Amino acid sequence: MQIRVSFYSYFRELTDCAETVQDLPEGSTLATLVERLTLRYPRLAGMQRSMLVAVGVEYQPREYTLKAGDEVSLFPPVQGG
User: Fold this and answer.
1) CA gap 72, 36 in Å, rounded
2) Do the Cβ atoms of 1 and 24 come closer than 8 Å?
3) Is 6 inside any structural domain?
4) Is residue 54 assigned to a domain?
5) Domain assignment of residue 60, given as a range
6) Is the separation of the CB atoms in 28 and 55 below 8 Å?
7) Per-residue pLDDT of the chain (81 residues; tens, 9 = 90+)
8) Could you give the CA distance from residue 63 to residue 8 in angstroms, rounded to a whole number?
9) Are strands 52-55 and 19-23 parallel, antiparallel or unpaired?
10) How many other CB atoms are found less than 10 A from the CB of residue 76?
11) Which CATH number belongs to the domain containing residue 8 in this structure?
C-alpha cells in the first residue's frame, strides 16, 4: 500500500522534501513507517523518539495500523517561545 507523508518545519530540511510516498506492506504500523523513513532519510534518525506523528488531523501512537490512502504528517517536537 502507498502512504503519503508530509514533512513540516525543519524536517523538510532534513529530508530535502516537503512530502513523499512510501510503499509499505498491508497491516504496517506507524512504527514501521518511521523506521522505513529513517532508512530512506538518515538525517531523521536522531529525531525518531521525539517526532510527532499524525494521521489525517489526529496524532496517533506508533502502534496505529495504517490503511491504504492514509496521509501522515511528521512534525518536530513543539518548542515554546
Assistant:
1) 13
2) yes
3) yes
4) yes
5) 2-75
6) no
7) 999 999 999 999 999 999 999 999 999 999 999 999 999 999 999 998 899 999 999 999 999 999 999 999 999 987 555
8) 22
9) unpaired
10) 16
11) 3.10.20.30
Phi/psi of residue 17, nearest 5 degrees: -155, 160
Q: Which three cell numbers stand for residue 3?
A: 502512504
39-to-32, 46, 55, 78 alpha-carbon distances in Å: 11, 12, 20, 24
Using only C-alpha atoms, what is the Rg of the chain?
Answer: 12
CA distance 62 to 51: 11
Residue 20 lies in a domain: yes
Chain centre to alpha carbon of residue 56: 12
Q: Grid cell 523518539 — which residue? A: 49
Q: How many residues are listed for the chain in this entry? A: 81
CA-CA distances (angstroms) from residue 61 to 14, 53, 67?
22, 8, 15
Number of separate domains in the chain: 1
